[in-house]
Amino acid sequence: QCQLSGLWRNEQDSLMEISAVTDNGDFQGKYLTRVTLASNCARASPLRGAQQQPGEGGWPTFGFTVRWDKFSNATTAFVGQCFVDAGGKETLTTVWLLREAVGSLQEDWKATR
C-alpha cells in the first residue's frame, strides 16, 4: 500500500509535506520549491489535494494544487500516481501545469507552462 502522507523530495530537491489523508481521500500540506530557495525567498506554499482509492491490486492516483501566493502570482496543478517497488520504496510520479497571471486576454497564450 502506498501512503501519500509524509515528507517527499523530488529530483530538484524540492520538498513536499503531506498531512494525513482522510478517509475520503482529502489531504493538505505544504510545498517548498528550489525555485524559492534560488531567489532567497524560502517560504512554504500551501497545497490541497485528493487521492483516489485504488482498485484491488492497484496503486492510488491523486491530484493537488499549490498556491504560490507568497512569492508569485501563480498556481500549479499536479496529478500523479503512487507506486511501491519490490524493495518497499514508495515513488510518486507526477505531471504539472503552472498558470501565471497575465495582464490581458491577449497575453493568455503565454500564461500556462
TrEMBL record:
**GO CC term (a single one):** extracellular region
GO molecular function ontology, one term from the record = biotin binding
Which superkingdom, per the lineage? Eukaryota
> Where located?
Secreted
The record's Pfam families line, in alphabetical order, gives: Avidin
Which keywords does this chain's UniProt record carry? Biotin, Disulfide bond, Glycoprotein, Secreted, Signal
Record-annotated disulphide pairs: C2-C82
Q: What does the UniProt record say this protein does?
A: Forms a strong non-covalent specific complex with biotin.
Q: Which PANTHER family match?
A: AVID PROTEIN-RELATED, AVIDIN-RELATED
Complexes and interactors: Homotetramer.
Tell me its family. Answer: Belongs to the avidin/streptavidin family.
| Name under which the protein is recorded | Avidin
